[in-house]
Amino acid sequence: MNETTRAPAQPYRQTVSDIRPNLKFAGRLLVRAAQVQTAKNGKPFLVLSLVDRTGGVQAKIWDWSGEPPAAGSVLDVVGTGDEYNGHLQLRIHTLKPAEGDPADFVPAAPETPDTMFAEISATADELRDASLRKIVRELLDRAVEANLLAAPAAKTMHHATRGGLLHHTVTMLRAAKAVAEVYRFLDKDLLYAGVIAHDLAKLDEMAVDSLGLVSDYTRDGRLVGHIVRGVVNIEKAAARTGADRERATLLQHLVLSHHGDAEFGSPVPPKCPEALVLSAIDRMDAKLFQMHDALRGTAPGTFSAPVWALDRIEIYKPENPREA
């Protein structure tokens, strides 16, 4: 593994959350993915996706020679923070192999996977609608076999952490239950089933390893996507369990419409109250996660770096922030 400059004597104590544009960085990070690419001048350079417990960052090292470091390997990295097209990046000066348990470097959800899954599973079992209960139970059992407990909700966007898919689902489920207490005309069973089912097909969309890291999107994910695959999975589960046709179709509609409109990938807009609530809390949960994540490394009384996923908005952190 080559080095472009001499590594400094300073210890590797910084984390991803410390990376800032134009500031030096020295930290011990895990390789999520790495690929050698070719620049316009014909010279190879290395592109890496690096993570630690505080988050992830894209990084580049120029004039690279040799093979890329393996996914799951730990590196000591020295570089400078950079910003490109609204994205915070790391321009690497040196990197070298380091010791460390890869599991210690993977960003993780704030609750244990077993705890989150138990809450989701209990809600599924409490659905009074037998058709929805059977479909959701079937989907959950299949999802556990497909690494649900470790899976993130996305490769790089919201809830891109170990257990992130469960975290996204359980927080949405809690929000849905609160909304259902205010709008009592909502079909709770349909809404809760929709929350549980809406993103489970991301397990078909992403290649997730035992650490909860996504190396890439699968062929199915690139050609079909989790929304359409989710509808197909519901169809199969309904057939296996003998579910009522209309109830299965309504659940499929919630999955189809949960991104809100065609601009964000939904073939149809929400056409029932439960679909509208699902779409709203899905969007809210994703944005709140991104805001909270942006504020973690932000000093009180200042603004975060522009958040690309939120239209490059800078998020303000109050001088006396409320303690969580």
Describe the structure in your own words.
Mean pLDDT is 88; it is low at 1-9. The protein has helices at 113-126, 130-145, 164-182, 188-197, 202-205, 219-223, 226-241, 245-257, 273-296; strands at 24-38, 44-52, 55-61, 74-84, 87-97, 206-208, 214-217. It contains nine helices and seven strands. The strands form two sheets. The protein has a five-stranded mixed β-barrel with strand order 1-2-3-5-4. Strands 6-7 form a two-stranded antiparallel ribbon. The chain has two domains: 16-105, OB fold (Dihydrolipoamide Acetyltransferase, E2P), CATH 2.40.50; 113-290, Hypothetical protein af1432 (Orthogonal Bundle), CATH 1.10.3210. Helix 1 (113-126) packs across helix 3, helix 2 (130-145) packs parallel to helix 4 (188-197) and helix 4 packs across helix 8. The longest helix has 24 residues, at 273-296. The chain starts with 23 loop residues before the first strand and ends in a 28-residue tail after the last helix. It is of the alpha+beta class and 324 residues long.
